[in-house]
Amino acid sequence: MKVLMIDDSRTMRNIQKNVLKTFADCECVEAGDGIEGLSALAANPQLDLILVDWNMPNLDGLSFVKRMREKDKTTPVIMVTTEAEKQRIIDAIKAGVNNYVIKPFTPDSLLERVKQTLEKAKAAAAA
Amino acid sequence: MTVAVPPPTVSNAAAGGAAPGVELVIHFMKAIKEVLSTMAGVEVTTGKPGLKQDPVSTYDVSGIIGFSGNFGGSMVLSFKKETAVALVKGFSGMEMTPDSPDFTDAVGELANMIAGAAKTQFGGGTSISVPSVILGQGHVIGRLHDVPCIVIPCESAAGAFAVEVSIKSKQ
Asked: Which of A9, A53, A60 to mutate to test the interface with B (most CBs of B within 10 A)?
């Protein structure tokens, strides 16, 4: 499984990486903001999943998702963020996010959302 | 276990302007406990909040988050160095020394999550900044001059720390 993780906190990316590695053999690509995320996307066209933070310097997560979805409608995206207000979640879903994890999170809750998202993506691809 | 919480540096003199309301402070107290319990596996006891007039940070390590929109101001997560090292280890799963860039990153992310969890209760229309982290004894943090600062003293198995909240409603 190849996953792109976009978060300005390296600590958070490491935590997510460690959680994913308990689930599957995972090749992790990392980016520190939305601009790096777009570059990583261009360099890695066959991604299975993207985890993206919202509040980041240079280009925030919501803007990254909007730009990404202009060309890529199918790669599943989970937003992992402190932004928990209802309107923020609605904005993220409208932008094209497939699932949402609110920080702070337990490893189990992150893993649950990852599995859920991948299963839905697989079902959508098969349909 | 009951843990004695040292009193914050406070002044009884009015600082001018309305102090953050009780409800706002309670949101931060809940957020501190939720974030550190979930992400660092540490239970926190919060003490009685008090007014702070001394601009010098409570402890040596500060994670700072700005607020803008319907609520403006700042939150500072202030740790003793040893406490920060212990909490960062619990959070990241790794030993880090304060001179490591990953250490300041981890402190910043803890501050980000506490501020974000509190902000969720504000009712929308407020944004938080990316975090800044300052290391060093006796550093001074500039705040909005008309917004008093409330210090929430905290105690945990990792040691003492404090959350300094200087926020006002702009509505």
From this structure: A9
